[in-house]
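Appendix B, example 12.
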Amino acid sequence: MTLGPDGREGHAGRVMDNGEWLAGRFEEHRTHLRAVAYRMLGSLAEADDAVQDAWERVNRAGADDVDNLKAWLTTVVARVCLNALRSRNTHPEEPLDAYIPDPIVSLPAGPDPEEEVLLADSVGLALQIVIDTLGPAERVAFVLHDMFHLSFDEVAVMVGRSPEATRQLASRARRRIKGAEVHTPERDLARQRAVVDAFFAAGRAGDFEALVALLDPDVLARADLGPGRPGAPRVIRGAEAVARQARLGANAAAVIHPVLVNGAAGVVITLDGQPLALMGFTVAEGKIVEVDVIADPDRISRLAASVLAALDPQPGIDHDRS
């Protein structure tokens, strides 16, 4: 603290105290802000960048006249994300046949508190995939209103529309999501895991009929192979087609590690200790309705770093094998 000649706190001390106070309050809300950014952008790295950008803006502007700091910080992050989404549309990256947004990968015991915040109001990876197809304004309206409960008046300011037009954006987003048939997953995680375990057992055994029986007739499988990996089909629909691919892809030397993928049953598959695939499953009414596969080792290493670090490296352990 800087004191003036009269022993009172000087201007520099007040500025420092205000800056420290604002930094502390921002850190209190960082997990919430990261969750907002993740839902909008579908990328953990981009979400972290958006939150950092928001902090730099907030730090420059100060918050002296702000009544509801959390709501204000949410709007700042949302504007940063909206700019990022619009930039994506202006400068699109090379399209992938089946891009899968970053999932939250957790140990089977469950997500940690920060991961729980990221997963709040989610019905799984399938919803995030559909959100990723929405236009920037639709996405902002849906995420902020339906998932984070901001009013349409608040969201309207961000997207530059009237509250009624913003309401229509969110309504259109809901229709898109409903039209994409996002399934509500089985709530009982043990039942999800039993179906997934049976799927891998049938694949190991080459039991085509058992595989088909575990799959919904209209099951959808997406495979995000990463850049520069042409060849295998990236999107497959239908029980028989998915079962054939599962039987062909079974590898007796690979090791299956159960994980949670966006709070649902999933696996990380390693081969010779290196990541091979990350798979998330949507199970509904005892059937697998969606399979999402990331097969880019570098991306898996980043997304599942904490899980991979926790895997038992000791030889002789009886792991499940694919």
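The first strand starts at residue 105 and ends at 106. Residues 134 and 178 are 13 Å apart (CA to CA).
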